[in-house]
What we know:
Order of helices and strands: EHEHHEHEEEEHEHEHEHEEHHHH
Strand content: 15-25%
Shape: globular
Amino acid sequence: xxxxxxxxxxxxxxxxxxxxxxxxxxxxxxxxxxxxxxxxxxxxxxxxxxxxxxxxxxxxxxxxxxxxxxxxxxxxxxxxxxxxxxxxxxxxxxxxxxxxxxxxxxxxxxxxxxxxxxxxxxxxxxxxxxxxxxxxxxxxxxxxxxxxxxxxxxxxxxxxxxxxxxxxxxxxxxxxxxxxxxxxxxxxxxxxxxxxxxxxxxxxxxxxxxxxxxxxxxxxxxxxxxxxxxxxxxxxxxxxxxxxxxxxxxxxxxxxxxxxxxxxxxxxxxxxxxxxxxxxxxxxxxxxxxxxxxxxxxxxxxxxxxxxxxxxxxxxxxxxxxxxxxxxxxxxxxxxxxxxxxxxxxxxxxxxxxxxxxxxxxxxxxxx
Length: 368
């Protein structure tokens, strides 16, 4: 029997609620497909920081490193200044665990409402690959004369061939498993140095993947093409900041942040990958049973796919999305069912669904 050791960082707000339901669905799936999914919980997040003054220490990082994956719930609390938890935990783990790929599927599932008129599931099935450790997110910069009328702030974007190459090569490999189309999204006409480096790496790596068709889109143009003609895209690769923005636009297209899952991937097996819904901690509704666990379940499905459990991942995905299609609303009391009830319904469905045979990001990720 295959066995996996997974760290669980449920986090803040609705994080523990949606993570608990995701684990419920995974447990049902693991029982069905005959593998063990062992979890160790870590109470990291706002309360831990408020109690100790420490976001995460080196000993805990090393404990987390020993796991095969991390399931992350949500992060954020109004009692903690912005940036403390985000930079001190999520960004720190992405760098410490060498997770250069942020994977964001953008798929409109059948029966899930979208604000884009006349958009159909057949037209919206793409993946945004965001470089996860460099760019403006490195945090390099300085401020002089702070608090005065003469203040000057410098924020530096760091781009290196090794990091870009990792994320570009992964994107080509993923595209090869899907529809064999890859688009670079950047701003090469203005960010001429960073843009030229990205284009150079794309051109160099493309020689190893002649079957993959290449495209290029400026990031501002992407903000129009993505909602209007998402069928143009299969795999989109982009830098850290641009990816942060367009992936949230993609989430809106597919029905909202409550449907959006993500994976932060370590590619060489030296540390765990980390999987999280991207909807935030929503402290205003925490404890009310109004949070939709679908994004957490889909993130757990991505986790299973990277662990090699492709059929289990497909069933988790289908269990979550088939239940979503039956809801009158995707969040809040208008759903007509609680967070816990939704998780139970998804878990029950995971025990009876046939393994889907249609193409999915889950099977592509498992093959990569």
